[in-house]
Amino acid sequence: MLDSHCHLDFAEFDAARAELLAEARALGIEGWLVPGVHEGSWDAQEALVGEEGVRLAVGLHPWWVQEAGLLDAALARLEQRARRLHAVAWGECGLDAKRGQVDVAGQLPWFEAQLELARAAELPLVVHQVGAREEFLQALSRCGGLPRGGVIHGFSGDAAWAHALVQRGFHLGFGAAALDARRARLQEAWRAVPLSAILLETDAPAGPRGQHSTPADLARIVRGLADLRGLAAEDLVRTGDENLARLLGLEGPEAFARGRVVGADARGGGRGPEGLL
Fold first, then answer.
1. pLDDT value at position 17?
2. Domain extents in the chain
3. What is the pLDDT of residues 67-100, one digit of tens each?
4. pTM
5. What are the tens digits of pLDDT across the range 223-243?
């Protein structure tokens, strides 16, 4: 079972990270894609190098772009980091019309620049998108598309928006929010999305409505999502894992779970399984 979006580097896990990973592994959770969000978390993310089943992405989240300094210099640091850490995806980046230090107009240059870097590095994109739908689509149009595709993580829209994103080549990440019976439109979207376009995630330590979550929560989330679609949990896991491995350019879920990121060095780079044991 693979978690397509988990912030294992966040400080909330510092006191018991090893124990929480052991708990998750005991439930059959074997891999985690850990996105980058801001430079303050870089050391903690890099400390995960060598942890079995961990894959890393690099990016600047729209909540923290104001802290990154000058755009060109920040992007140069990110590009170098992607090579050093053998990143398998670019992100988390995107647009957020509800929360952030700067408005959507201020977030756009950062998002569009990272779209271009993902294209140049031939990496899939991990996207945080809340509101700002028109601006998001316009940015994609100006960029010219993403040859490696990407995922809208923590999808929270309706079926029509889900369809529009899938038509543009995106996967959609679903987590605990879709289990909330009060979110009928999101549950409708979950039932309507082609299984070939879904990914499974915790977004831990974040949880629905401000609650705290852990990596082990993926097992519960998968069972709930499977029930909503009348699927066997093991079938949903198989589909989600295969989708994630394919998006990242890996040979299959086993390659994700078995391997680990090797030591960061300036010779790193490339895409897909390069830099993995």
1. 95
2. 26-32+39-258
3. 767 688 888 988 998 898 889 999 999 999 988 7
4. 0.91
5. 999 999 999 999 999 999 999
**Residues 107, 127, 82, 22, Cα dihedral to 10°:** 130
Token readout for 15 is: 């006191």
Q: Does domain 26-32+39-258 have CATH number 3.20.20.100?
A: no
Which token pair is 266? 């300036």
Letter for the amino acid at 80?
Answer: Q
